[in-house]
Write a structure and sequence with these properties.
By secondary structure, the chain is α+β, with helices and mostly antiparallel strands. It has a single domain (about 5-105), classed as 3-Layer(aba) Sandwich (Aminopeptidase). Helices cover about 30% and strands about 30% of the residues. The chain has helices at about 5-10, 20-25, 40-50, 90-100, 120-125; strands spanning about 10, 50-60, 60-70, 75-80, 110-115, 130, 140-145. A hairpin with a 4-residue loop joins strand 3 (about 60-70) and strand 4. It is globular, with a radius of gyration of 15 Å.
Length: about 150
């Protein structure tokens, strides 16, 4: 993977990106979301008040995004359009988001994801650990800052 090209498509997300974020979110086949369950205002709050987000673009189209919640110490979202999987965008977004979350003085991060999903394996390969039994087929994963 050419990280120079990949990074060229990485930028901070803004409220103007909502249409692209929703397109990617509804395109995924695991950890799906029913339309209307999360409103635009909640996403904007995550981007502007409690956290920060990033998008990856290819030819001007958002193909992946991540949102980290510094107040909640969690990965609020990280999704890659299935058409763009395997290009390193998930890893790039993960590393960018986690690095930013650590700069907020956090010692431990958490997220929830499907118990039997590719996403769980993605996070576990990056050092996240399951901290309990699945609840409604979801697991809670945590990552501890090795430098704290």
């Amino acid at each position: 993977m050419d990280t120079t090209l990949t990074k060229a498509g990485l930028r901070e997300a803004t409220r103007a990106d909502l249409a692209g974020i929703w397109r990617v979110r509804y395109a995924v086949v695991e950890n799906t979301l029913e339309p209307g369950r999360i409103e635009d205002d909640e996403v904007i709050s995550q981007l502007e008040a409690s956290g920060r987000g990033w998008v990856v673009e290819e030819d001007g189209e958002i193909v992946a995004f991540a949102i980290g919640d510094a107040k909640g110490a969690n990965v609020w979202a990280l999704f890659v359009d299935p058409r763009a999987e395997g290009r390193g965008y998930g890893s790039l977004l993960h590393d960018t988001m986690v690095e930013w979350l650590w700069t907020n003085g956090l010692d431990t991060l958490w997220l929830s994801t499907g118990a039997d999903t590719k996403a769980r394996g993605f996070y576990e390969r990056r050092g996240w650990h399951c901290t309990g039994n699945p609840v409604r087929s979801q697991v809670r994963l945590e990552l501890t800052n090795a430098w704290s």
